[in-house]
Amino acid sequence: MSRLTVDAAADAHSVLWLGHGAGGGIEALDLAALAATLPARGITVVRYEQPWRLAGKKVAPRPAALDAAWLEVAPIVRTIHAGIPLITGGRSAGARVACRTAEAVSAAAVICLAFPLHPPAHPERSRADELLMPRVPVLVLQGERDAFGSADLVASAIADTESITTVSIPGADHSMAVLKSSPYTPESTANLITASVAAFIERL
């Protein structure tokens, strides 16, 4: 069993469907900030919880199982606001799912929060091929200190791809957290993420 949490816009022009990562749920800083902010700008936010997490398991299943669970609820998500663009996305593992399934769900665009370009300390095991799978515009918001691939590394991996836009989140790690000594704060980080996503969707 999976679960959808809907933060609806009063007069929606787009739906943003987001999945969580392998190490956390829909309460993650970036996912929560988007759900709290975007409905006021006409974007309904749907946060999806994978069955494995609701079952209390500690480890996510293989990618094929994640994709299948996501695709199973796609018809339900489509009924939330029929007839308006559906943008899919997620953080970390959820971003990978969104990239792999973008064509299958007819996504108008994909938003990747903390895309795990490679396992920590193993840049040679690149997942850039997944990031390149969508045939629609893609926005990647990547922490400057992300151990799964910094913003600079992601930008380098997709340098020749005009359909992908990368936004560097200053001072942020994979969870979008910043150091206490940093001039940046959780609030400024959340504001940058939400403003970047809203502007991207409004340009579609």
Distance between the termini: 33 Å
Rg computed from alpha carbons, rounded to a whole number of angstroms: 16 Å
Q: Tell me, what is the CATH class?
A: Alpha Beta
- Give the rounded overall mean pLDDT: 96
In the sheet with the most strands, the strands line up as 1-3-2-4-5-6-7
- Share in helix: 25-40%
Number of domains: 1
- The CATH superfamily is Alpha/Beta hydrolase fold, catalytic domain
Uncertain residue segments: none
Shape: globular
Q: Could you please say which CATH topology applies here? A: Rossmann fold
The topology string of helices and strands comes to EEHEHHEHEHEHEH
Task: Write a concise keyword list for the protein shown above.
204 residues, 7-stranded mixed β-sheet, 7 helices, alpha/beta, Rossmann fold
Description:
There is one protein chain. This protein has 204 residues and is α/β, with parallel strands linked by helices. It has one domain: Rossmann fold (3-Layer(aba) Sandwich), CATH 3.40.50.1820. The chain has seven helices and seven strands; from the N terminus they run E-E-H-E-H-H-E-H-E-H-E-H-E-H. The protein has a seven-stranded mixed β-sheet, with helices on both faces. It is globular and about 40 Å long. The model has no long low-confidence stretch (mean pLDDT 96). InterPro entries: AB_hydrolase_fold (IPR029058), KANL3/Tex30_Abhydrolase (IPR046879), NSL3/Tex30 (IPR026555). Pfam families: Abhydrolase_11. Residues 15-202 form the KANL3/Tex30 alpha/beta hydrolase-like domain. This is Hydrolase.
